[in-house]
Amino acid sequence: ESRRMNISVSNLFQGKVIRDGEEKKIDLFTLNLSSSHNFLADSLKWADLQSNLRASASRNFDFSMTTTHSFYKTGRNGRGRRDEFVWNDGFALPRMVNFQLNARVHLAPPPPEEEEKAVQPDTTALADSLESFNIGTDPITEGLRNFKLPWDLTANFTYNINRSDINNVQNRLDMNLAARLEITRNWRIQYSGSFNLLDKVINYQSFNIYRDLHCWEMSFSWGLNPQGYSFFNFEIRIKEPVLRDIKYTRASGSNRVF
After folding, report:
1. Would the pTM of this model clear 0.70, i.e. be above it?
2. Helix residue ranges per DSSP H, the chain
């Protein structure tokens, strides 16, 4: 049986910028706090204080921070809680039990419309370029210079501190990568990986090559798991959903790499 009261506070922090004489309001970050109180509990009536801060600096970068704080002192063995507030012996803030920080970075070429805005045509520059145009310019070299491959890269970082046992505080920093490169309209290469940066351990990584064969499609993937075993899978199949069971597959068992 319980009789619980939930308490939460939501904060939205905003700012104002002036561009070209026009004032615009922007959202900076949000901060949310929550806890609860159980009136019928015989001890430890207050639940942990949960805090969440989230900010999006731009569409290519954002981060969030989550913390858990306890109003009570730790147990005698350094774990758990005992029914005694942390400020009973004097001023003290709630005790941090867990902290996690997440950050995401996304890199990619700007959309075509943004490129057009960034580079406005200049008639003067155009006239100068026509005057300096050399009829002997190699068209292949000029084509390669203007050739652009669609690509994107996303990196996610997670840092965590676990203080549930003050005698064994645990820290962990992980990075997840995801990358994509379209060599041509029909060829695509993808990579994904997860790494424990503090222990310098590869959690997982995989490569994938995809080829559009009009009515068919081909894919080849290679992966590596945390135990050091690698595997691959090769497959050609019909793209039509009704006929996707018509395929040729070749896969390997797990081979020890390290």
Report:
1. yes
2. 112-118, 123-131, 139-146
